[in-house]
Amino acid sequence: MQSLYVEGTSIMHRLPARSKLLVLAILGVILFTTRNIALLSLGVLITGAVYSSVGLSSGQAIARLKPVLLTILVVALFSLAFNPWHGAVVALLRLTALMLFAAAVTATTTISEFIDEVTLLARPLERAGLVAANDVGLAVGLVVRFVPEILGRYQAIKEAHTARGIKVRPVTVLAPLIILTLRDADNIAAAIDARGVRRHVS
């Protein structure tokens, strides 16, 4: 299984996972409380510089962001269709800045660090009897871990369609992708249960 983590010694790598997640949360709040295009553009430049410092080549860095970037462009186009241009630009800049910093955090934080921090955050909810903190941490870790796997599988299905001369369409690609992903999810859940990792609460 692939991981989004990139080995390195950048400043982002040296920061504790908790600090990075806290900055990401604060950045999200700041970005969504301003509509100033100049400030948002500055945010994109800064987060872009942070992302470019994590040690990925230009091609890898862009390839990782392509699916999310396409989604952001679609959101901006919808916003442009129903709102003044200013609103569309604001949405585009906000989401792009957030995406760049989130990508930098993901590239410099290991899955185990993610799981530890999310588990710690979920402890108060566990004490209230609402969730099992370890399960929440594990679930978030698996989601982060699965992202590159799903993207790689999508690419493989697309290439298989092209090699067979089948026109690549979302419907023909998504169906096998969902089936394969669910099958893997079942296998991983079975493996986790077999090892007694999850703690069931009544």
UniProtKB/TrEMBL annotation:
CDD domains, per database record: EcfT
One Pfam family this sequence matches: CbiQ
Subcellular location, record wording: Membrane
Principal location: membrane
TM ranges: 21-51, 63-82, 89-108
UniProt keywords, alphabetically: Membrane, Transmembrane, Transmembrane helix
GO cellular component: plasma membrane
Membrane-protein topology: Multi-pass membrane protein
InterPro entries linked to this entry: ABC/ECF_trnsptr_transmembrane
Family: Belongs to the CbiQ family.
Alphabetical list of PANTHER family matching this protein: PROTEIN ABCI12, CHLOROPLASTIC
Protein name as catalogued: Biotin transport system permease protein
